Amino acid sequence: MFLMTTLTYPPDKATEVAKIFMELPELPPFVKRLHVLIGSDLIAGYKVHGLYEVENKKAYEGLMAIVKRLTSYNKIEGCRFTIAPY
């Protein structure tokens, strides 16, 4: 199973995002981060797309591991994320 994440945040929050990124928990071995792409959006600000591959039998645990990482950013005003399966 593949999971695609999108994290958006205002440009003025980049330093806060970087600080939290350095403190994120490690992903379990059955979750492989395949790609991270960074861009920008005129409305949302910075956009970070992540593509992850998760073993099918561990799909729920993999999803929860990714959610745990992304919810770390919730304390930053204007920071949002989505996760979609593929």
Give a verbal description of the structure:
This protein is α+β, with helices and mostly antiparallel strands and 86 residues long. It has one domain: Alpha-Beta Plaits (2-Layer Sandwich). Helices cover 27% and strands 41% of the residues. It has a four-stranded antiparallel beta sheet, covered by helices on one side. The chain is globular and about 40 Å long. The termini are close together.
Could you give a short account of the major beta sheet?
A: 4 strands, antiparallel
Number of domains: 1
Question: What's the assembly state of these chains?
Answer: single chain
Radius of gyration from the CA trace?
A: 13 Å
Overall mean pLDDT: 96
Amount of helix? 25-40%
Overall geometry = globular
Number of strands: 4
Structural class: alpha+beta
The CATH C-level class name:
Alpha Beta
- Low-pLDDT runs of 5+ residues are none
The strands making up the biggest β-sheet line up spatially as: 2-3-1-4
Number of helices: 2
Label the CATH architecture.
2-Layer Sandwich
What percentage of amino acids are in beta strands? Answer: 35-45%
Task: Briefly note the CATH topology name.
Answer: Alpha-Beta Plaits
N-to-C order of helices and strands: EHEEHE
